[in-house]
Amino acid sequence: MLLYVLFYSAALVSVVSTALVIASLNAVHALLYVILSLLASGVVFYLMGAYYAAMLQIIVHVGAIMMLFLFVIMLLNLGRRTLEQERKWLPAAAWRWPSAMAAVLLTELIFVLMQQEPAVLGHIVASKEVGIRLLGPYVLAVELASMLLLAGLVGAYHLTRQEVEK
Asked: Where are the transmembrane segments (predicted)?
């Protein structure tokens, strides 16, 4: 019973934070909500017994988003003036919703880790199954996604580079 409560509350956190991504006017706040949504969906995967998918969700998606955010900050070359502007834009009240939902996820994680038996609500997905699917019927989608990411990276570089005077 407790696992179902944890599952539905993690799913609710994911849905609410995704809705807040859409409703957020500030890009930094929207990014924080995206990260929270991805973490919540990682918890949902874990509770469903897809441990490998949960770790992929957290490591690849959340890690990739944070690296992309860092990459954008480095490309924009933000200075001290923007740091003061960020402080004005990000009051303490803006952290209420993300903090509350992150606390819910942390509480769920503690409850799951305190269980004596593994939290399995579904089929356990092994890394071999993921590899067979990715290199089998979904190989074209994986290759197209990698080309799309490469095109985005090259486009971002060319849009933000500054001409060097000789």
From this structure: 6-23, 30-52, 58-76, 97-115, 135-159
